[in-house]
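Q: Hi! First time doing this. I have a protein sequence and I read that you can turn it into a structure. Is that right? Here it is:
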Amino acid sequence: MCRDKLYAATAECNPQQMRRTLFFLLFLFSLSLFAQNGEPLRVELVTEKDYHDYSYEICGRNGAIVFYKSNLLNKDTANWVILQYDTNLTQTRNTEIHIPNLAEPISSYYTDNFVHILFQKDDNRNKSSVWFLLTYQCDSVNTKLLPLALTLNEISYIKAYDDYLYCVANEKKTIGANVVHLPTMEVKGIYLEDYYIEQYAFLEIDTLNERLLIGALHFPKVHEALSTFALIDSDLGFNDYTLKQYPESDGIWLTGARCAVSDSGDVLLVGTYNHNTEKRLSNLHTGVYALPYRNGKMGEIHYYNYSNLKSSNSPSQEKIQNLNLELILGNVFHNNNQFALVTEVYYPEYNYNNTYASSFGYYYGYGGYPTTTFAGYHFTHSYITTFDKEGKLVWDNYFPFNNVITNTLYTKTSVYIDKENLGYIYYNFGNKITSTLVDKYEVIEPVTSQVIVTKYPSDEVEYTRNLQIRNWYDNNFIICGYQYIKNGSRSKSGKRFVFTMNKLIYE
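A: Yes, that's right. Below is the predicted 3D structure, encoded as structure tokens:
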């Protein structure tokens, strides 16, 4: 293999292969970006053990912010602190703002130099919620807190664009999305007279055409029909919108939906489907689909069965027509040329024990009563399916997990498609980042794992919580979460529980 002769190229080594290998090796060496003093570019904010009291939002080239409740001023008001960091994770601002007590952050979103943070406070007397919007401007000292008259009680996430704030709830009702016109604070919802919305699958903003695209799982009110996905195409203010049905095929029903909009305005609808099943509410999936949407019209839908994928490193699937996998639908990652959908396969795992019962309680042993306890969701692998703007498959990849078991279902795999359309596939679990580099079906670098660098060489990470890696800006990444660290040489207790941010780079 060329890697052993990396620094002394010979005729035996393919120059293109050598360049790509060097490309990845440079990433490995620069995965933890170091400052001039040799320490990693890393922030640590000390907190109490197992307290998850920090929230954050990444802000592109404006850096990142961390916000938290510092203290209670009185029974009605709490003091919140916003810390802003530049792209070298150097703190640049410290802002304090008073927020009604018991109001907690639900979701945040960054756009155009502004961070919008939605706070929720329960109104137990009226069995409803009171909402507040905190708007923080990254390039000035402008910070505002305003009440919101939303019609929703539960909100999943928010997005913002131009003068509008969008709030989406996974409520089984017609009004599951609100838009707030920020200059006037006017609130509108989506009213579909002939349909019930079961679930909102996505909300994407087409900035080029100034349209809002909402994926909804819905069913008609007038008769008992099966649920199906539809696209709500709306102007920014919810003044003019239409509902467009996804195309249907015999024996196929859609089980999930995602949407991606490229910088050039190409829209691709992707998701999962099930083939030839009557259990429409089951969690079984046969493959993925891709559906282009252009000029207000649905294009041709393309179906790709998991058993027919071409990944050279996938397990043998000969003679299997439909895998019917239990999986979780991930996100769509894209550049202007390719769209990559992630789906992750798992199965629930249980521990089995034999139990004896007596008047004194239960004990374990041979011949007892079998009992089962839920051990967690065991993730086996993920599929990465990559499409062009027409929905045609460009490449796919099978990415194995290394003994990943979680108590909750959430997606872990991410994909970064660089300017040369190389696919960097990665996930973090515990204190490690596992990754591979591919060029379509060619594996440039096999799956490897690397420990996340801490602040001091003698640090020992006992465990991590909620550690997530995200693409920050361009080829820069940030990893944020909680770590419990032991180091007897740095403190009297030898232990610290911290919220941390690390800067990573791909080059």
